[in-house]
Design goal:
Helix 14 packs antiparallel against helix 15. The chain has a four-stranded antiparallel β-sheet, with no helix packed on it. It has a two-stranded antiparallel sheet with strand order 3-4. By secondary structure, it is of the alpha+beta class. The two termini are 37 Å apart. This is DNA alkylation repair protein.
């Protein structure tokens, strides 16, 4: 995915961005910026590498004074492409704005830029280097009127945020994060609530007992919080954590019987598909969560199990459902559904 995303940065798109900057700052050396950015290392860089390369080139081509450089970025921000393209703008704050004299200016900049592109990665070194001060700011952002800023409060302190350095301290003790999420669990924005759930899922990978207890405390408050808890417990559900399964009504493994499990073939080659089928019979009225696991061989020769959800349904006593699935075995794994339950 990152290899495809990096292609948002092309000679054409960077030329356009450079000309936007030059229109605001006439001294901006467009050709020099492009040459510094798209040098001999460019093709090998992924999206994060390209973002940082652009940032460093901007650092050489914009005014050396941080305040002056930010003033230019402030003016061009609304004119740049949306999506991920402008990530180099908050990245500029991360690279050049961590000095004590620049603190307030950098906080204002991240708050502003996250409303165009997320500042979730830029904020992390501020948390690592100034934890209490930055988490106080994150708590203030959790009360901001703009949903993008409130999401930054949650997303920025995820212990295991993708593409970012982990927040090692919060992997061990996520108490400050959980206190912040308490403010956002009833946020009116689904965008923010999804970030809360993703943050809980991160925490569950290192501190499952904390998330189990939080799930028990939060579940049942309202539909929105119920969704957060279920999405935030998805890793624990895949691991078959019985306490979490019981919260959602899936705790009775004797309520169903699996019969007539069959594999179409015992041996398959790469490029072929493995097909399996079975019948599920309810022994009493119950809720059922069905998953299956496949062990894939990693590059180091060791197996790695991936869990896929098959179904989450309610069944009545005596009800039967036939399931059949076909999974292609490819170098890049994906699941292929032949057909769902046959009534």
């Amino acid at each position: 995915m990152a290899e495809l995303l990096k292609n948002i940065y092309t000679a054409e798109s960077l030329q356009e961005a450079a000309e936007i900057i030059q229109a605001v700052y006439p001294a901006f050396p467009v050709e020099e910026f492009l040459a510094k950015t798209m040098d001999e290392t460019w093709e090998e860089l992924g999206i994060k590498g390209r973002v940082r390369k652009i940032t460093l080139s901007l650092g050489e081509c914009l005014p050396a004074d941080y305040r002056e450089a930010l003033a230019i970025l402030d003016e061009i921000a609304p004119k740049l492409s949306g999506g991920l393209f402008g990530l180099f703008v908050p990245d500029f704050v991360e690279v050049y704005g961590q000095g004590e004299a620049d603190w307030d200016l950098s906080i204002q900049a991240m708050e502003k830029y996250t409303q165009y592109w997320s500042s979730e990665m830029a904020v992390r070194p501020f948390i690592i280097n100034h934890e209490e001060r930055m988490m106080a700011q994150m708590n203030a952002w959790a009360r901001h009127e703009n949903e993008h800023v409130r999401r930054l409060a949650s997303e920025g302190c995820r212990p295991l945020l993708p593409w970012s350095q982990p927040l090692t301290k919060y992997k061990q003790d996520p108490t400050p994060v959980l206190e912040l999420l308490e403010q956002l669990k009833v946020d009116p924005s689904a965008y923010v609530r999804k970030s809360v759930a993703n943050n809980l899922n991160d925490i569950s990978k290192n501190q499952p007992e904390l998330i189990v207890q939080l799930a028990k405390d939060w579940y049942g408050e309202n539909e929105q919080t119920n969704w957060i808890v279920k999405h935030g417990c998805r890793t624990l559900l895949k691991k078959g954590n019985w306490e979490v399964l019981e919260i959602f009504g899936y705790g009775d493994s004797t309520a169903v019987e699996v019969k007539d499990f069959a594999l179409e073939t015992e041996k398959v080659a790469i490029g072929e598909a493995v097909t399996f089928a079975f019948t599920l019979i309810a022994q009493k009225d119950t809720k059922v969560r069905l998953e299956y696991g496949i062990d894939y061989m990693k590059a180091n020769g060791k197996p790695s199990r991936k869990i896929f959800q098959l179904s989450a349904i309610a069944m009545q006593e005596g009800e039967k459902k036939l399931y059949q699935r076909s999974i292609p075995l490819k170098m890049s794994v994906s699941e292929s559904i032949i057909r769902g339950p046959i009534q």
